[in-house]
């Protein structure tokens, strides 16, 4: 028996040599080499996500010196974000379809600061459903389109949940275009308001009931809080930045909305 077992063992060894156990088939890709440990460390986020130089993001970037000039080879941002002819025509057509009341106005420029301005501004006086924007706001078409879509898709339906106040009549805005630094500071990065990308919403007025101003409402437990929370949250579906009460002291009485473009479609909603 030992001899027989030895014989079968020799046969098995010979078979394994001729037909090895397939741990990796011939046509399977070879296992990649593990890179050095240092290459496995998480990469830092892109600079424009860690702190975008053009967004109203409180305390996220080192400030520039007041009046610091742009590098000669860098076109001012109003030129960089201007729409092409076809793109602008499509945007204006979309405003018409929404029922936004606006007029195109002359380009806005600032002799003292070339970084400010709007190359193709519109002045918006009313939004879908005949909801007034008061006062009328000057902004880029892209900003107006985001505002109109948000009002139609979410603000008006949310207002319909407040029947005792009547129909939404007006949206109050505290700032659209203005050449200023973030949070109205004397120095630092330019605000998105300075290029027509931003608008500050201060409150909502209704046909018959009490208005709803933007203010801290945590745990009020009423419909005004529910309405404010709803329109604030849904704004992030149309705008890339949404800041408001609780973000910091400078945003306690309004919703800052803007359409700054960031890499990978990153949105900042606080």
Give the SSE map.
Layout: H1 2-18, H2 47-50, H3 77-80, H4 85-98, E1 101-104, E2 108-109, E3 117-118, E4 121-127, E5 131-140, H5 141-159, E6 168-175, E7 198-206, E8 212-213, H6 223-235, E9 241-243, E10 255-258, E11 268-269
Parallel strand pairs: 5-6, 9-11
Antiparallel strand pairs: 1-4, 2-3, 4-5, 6-7, 7-8, 7-10, 9-10
How many extended strands? 11
Distance between the termini: 80 Å
As a whole number of angstroms, the C-alpha radius of gyration is 29 Å
User: Beta-strand percentage?
Assistant: 15-25%
Helix content: 25-40%
The gross shape turns out to be: globular
Mean pLDDT: 80
Class derived from helix and strand content: alpha+beta
Please provide the ordered H/E string of secondary-structure elements.
Answer: HHHHEEEEEHEEEHEEE
Low-confidence sequence ranges: 1-65
Number of helices: 6
Name the features.
270 residues, alpha+beta, nine-stranded mixed beta sheet, two-stranded antiparallel sheet, disordered N terminus
